[in-house]
Amino acid sequence: MSTIILGIESSCDDTSAAIIKDDILLSNIVAGQTVHESYGGVVPELASRAHQQNIVPVVHEALKQADVSKNEISAVAFTRGPGLMGSLLVGVSFAKGFARALNIPLIDVNHLKAHVLAHFIKEKDENAKPPEFPFLCLLVSGGNSQIILVKSYDEMEVLGQTIDDAAGEAIDKCSKVMGLDYPGGPVIDKLARQGNPNAYAFSKPHVLGLDYSFSGLKTSFLYFLRDRIKEDPDFIEHHKEDLAASLEATVVEILMDKLRKAARQYKIDQIAVAGGVSANTGLRNTFREHAEKYGWKIFIPKFGYTTDNAAMVAITGYFKYLNKDFCSIDLPAYSRVTL
Fold first, then answer.
1. What is the pTM assigned to this prediction?
2. Whether 290 and 153 share a structural domain
3. Is pLDDT above 70 for 27?
4. How many domains does the chain have?
């Protein structure tokens, strides 16, 4: 008998539902929220309201595209946290009600683990092989910057993480200082392709071990612009491509420096990247360069699996289902948690 998992993701501003059947992805529907663009960031109250509007049609479409009846579903996997509490509650409440109505198991998923396990998503007629355990995963997003030692589907150890801001957060805030559109990551990526990455030098942290820090970079970037604007009020407009390229290069260099140290220290050559920032062109290109230079076997997710999506929740739920790792219906959502 087939195992069919419905995955639900609602941790931030994307409402998503996915269907996985015997580890093969059948559908992955994502509804974004444009309402936040005029505010320059995600507004929690508006996000939760949009989730309430989107959750039913998104799940309906996921079932329709997968050609699966709700009565065929083996279990419901949902993002329990971390994330915005109001957003999480919409997905958690829907998953609980759906599971209770069909009398099927409920599986809670850690959002960070799901990003790591996105590398195990399989599509029809796809022959790509996932990483072999153990492997290192650089998890980089707007809220997280971590180097993770992945020992198995359910055993992961954080080797290093940011002590202040995340890489994606730093990029978004620097983008906002430049007056660029929200979200800043894709805009910086596009501009950086046209600029000189060596045009400007920004502060790099000196943090012991494998931890990261990006607050100093933000301050350095802000002060640099402040001084240049005094000389030329239109400095940003005249040099935005070089600014974007230099900022991106600095962030990537900071990330890769610690990742190289982790690979040497743990003698691991299977290296993956995950999270929203893994969509960045500069980071992807640097990963490929490191693969050639250091003999790494790298794993870069498809663009659709870099940002928040239910496919990664469903595949995590699938592995937990095989181990009968279910949760009770009274478990609450959580806004903050570690691996």
1. 0.94
2. yes
3. yes
4. 2
